[in-house]
Design goal:
five-stranded mixed sheet; 163 residues; 4 helices; alpha/beta
């Protein structure tokens, strides 16, 4: 029966499995000195693109994991519309990244930890539901939030200890 508890549990487990993969991508970004944020673009059961932040390594203020993953997925697919894709990201997307998701026409976004200083898919605002925009998508917050928040805390604690 659609919408049953089993369907919800299966959906959560699938989202959690993809989020664990996004956390791996975030850990790889941290090894490069980037803030550990990882993003995936997934279509069905296939990872189309995975990316971490590149703001430091590429001196690019737009080098956020989500934008990097959306660009890679669009290039690979040969089209900017990603209307069958789910974006998984370890930190709630900022306004720029949420806007990029709207423009890419994604199907949904799943994120781990909320971002009280910049999150724009529920915390400071919600571009996914903004009535003036021509595309909307569902947002699933909090999947493996504790793990993602711990990863970020460890990174910044280590960074401060080097100062």
């Amino acid at each position: 029966m659609p919408g049953s508890l089993n369907d919800q549990n299966d959906s959560f487990e699938r989202d959690a499995a993809w989020m664990r993969r996004a956390l791996e991508v975030a850990a790889q970004a941290a090894l490069r000195g980037e803030v550990p944020i990882g993003a995936l673009v997934v279509v069905g059961d296939v990872e189309v693109a995975a990316a971490g932040n590149t703001r430091e390594t590429e001196a690019d203020p737009c080098g956020h994991a989500e934008v990097n993953a959306l660009r890679a997925a669009a290039r690979l697919r040969g089209h900017w519309r990603l209307d069958d894709a789910t974006v998984y990201v370890t930190l709630e997307p900022c306004a720029m990244c949420a806007g990029a998701m709207v423009l890419a026409r994604i199907a949904r976004c799943v994120y781990a930890a909320p971002d009280p200083k910049g999150g724009f898919l529920g915390t400071l605002g919600n571009l996914a539901e903004h009535p003036g925009l021509n595309h909307h998508f569902p947002v699933v917050p909090g999947v493996l939030a504790d793990e993602a928040a711990d990863q970020l805390r460890r990174f910044f604690r280590a960074l401060r200890s080097k100062e």
